[in-house]
Amino acid sequence: MSIYNKRQEIAEFAKDRIQEIYDYDKDKVSTHNTQDLHHELFNTDYYIIGRYQAKEWLGSDAFDIIYEIQEFERDNFGCVTTDLSDPEKVVNMYVYIVGYEILEEVISDFLDDKDDWGSDEEEVC
After folding, report:
1. pTM of the complete model
2. pLDDT by residue (tens digit) across 53-101?
3. Which candidate, 114, 111, 72, 95, places its Cα nearest to that of 13?
4. Sign of dihedral through CA atoms 37, 42, 44, 48?
5. Greatest CA span in the chain, whole angstroms?
6. How far does Cα 116 stand from its chain's mean position?
7. Alpha helices of the chain — where are they, by DSSP H?
8. How many helices and strands in the chain, by DSSP H and E?
9. If residue 95 lies in a helix (H) or strand (E), which one and from where to where?
């Protein structure tokens, strides 16, 4: 699976989770509260659990992903804090980072789709 495909998979994961949140509370899904949604989607649970599954998911992109994590953490925190020897932590930090990059677009696309189809509720005559 290429980096592009991994990012697409993460975007689909986000879209599915946004749908669940929207079904529960429509007001939580907007482009005005991406920080709260990002936290709920990418910081309250692991994307992948298990060392073997994480290693398989990383595949040949492991070093590119590690590089992106290092760059993000140095830019935002001044140092690298993720344990880069733990594949599970690497995957989940990468998903967290990609979540920042894609979330606003995913939310916008999701809400545009909702507008195109109108309300999910049927009108009662």
Report:
1. 0.84
2. 999 999 999 999 999 999 999 999 999 999 999 999 999 999 999 999 9
3. 95
4. positive
5. 61
6. 24
7. 3-24, 34-42, 51-58, 62-77, 87-117
8. 5, 0
9. helix 87-117
